[in-house]
# Entry
Amino acid sequence: MATVAIRCPGCGANDPSTPDDHGIHTCAFCSTRYKMSGQVATRMPAPEPEPPVLPGGTTLWVIGGVVITVMTAIGVASAVVAVQPKEPEYTLPDAPAITWVEPSTTSSDVAPPEEPAATFTMHSTRMSLGTTFYVYGEIENTTRTVTLDKVEVVVVLKDEAGDEVGTDHGYAVRDVVPPGGRTPISILVSDPPPFASMEFEVVPKKATWTPTQVEGLRVEAGPLVQDRSFWKATGKVFNEGSVDARFVEIEIVGRDAEGLIVGVDTTYAKGDVLKAGSSARFDTSMVSFARTPTKVEYAVSGRPAE
# Structure
C-alpha cells in the first residue's frame, strides 16, 4: 500500500511518516507527535521517558528526590528505597561578647613613691662648759623602702611663752640609715640663751648614693677606764674579710640600766689601711657620759681600700 503524505499539525510539512502500534505519527521533520482521526490530525503529548535499566535487571526511578530501585531476578521483583542524604547543616555558635576595659590610671592603683621619714627620741642631756650642753638620743628610719642619708635633727629652744629663742642642730652618727634602721645622735647646743623648753625637728633626706662597706670587720674592746670627767676606750679591730679596708671607724655608745643613751663618741683605727686578715688598735680618752653607763656598745665600719 502506497504511503500518502499527511500534513503535520506542528510544522505544516507533508509528513511521510507511518503510525506506530498505537496509531501515533511522529513528524519526520519536527518530531511532532499526532494522531489521525479521519482527515483531522490531533497533536499528542510527548511520551514519558523510559526508566534507566542497570545491568542485572535493576531499574532506577527518581521521584521527588527519592531514588527507587526495582530489581527483578528470576521472576521476583523487589523494591529498595534509598533516600539521598542532604548536605549537613552547620550552625556556628555566637561569638562571645568582648568587653574592652580601659586600664585605670587612678592614684589608688599606682602607689606614690614613699617619702623620707624619721623620728627622733631624746634619751638624755649632758652639760659642758658654761651653758653649752649635749643632747643624746636615737633616730629611727620609719619608712619601708627609703634609705636615709645624713639625717639632721634641729633643737628648737623656747621661752615660757612658747616663743622661739634659739636653735642648734646635729647629724646622725651613721651617715646611712636603712629602712627600719636606727642610729644614735649627739647634738651640741652651743652657748644657748635662757630657755624654758626644747622641741625637735627631724630633717630626713633620701640617700642618693650608698657607699660600699667592707664585710668581716670585728671589734674586740678593752676595759673602759674613767679618767677624771672623761673615759678612755681602747681595743682592736680585726679584718676577717677578704677586702682591704680604709676609714675604719669605731662607734662607742654608752647606755644606762634602762637602755637610754647617755653618751656617744667615735674614733678611727690606727693606720691608713686595714688589710684583710690583719688587725689594728684604737684608743680614745675623750669619751663623755651624762652618767656612768651600765653597758657600752661598739660598732665598726669601713670602706674598701682602692
Q: What stands out?
A: The mean pLDDT is 85. Residues 230 and 286 are 6 Å apart (CA to CA). The chain is about 0% helix and 50% strand. The chain has three domains: 8-72, 118-203, 217-304.
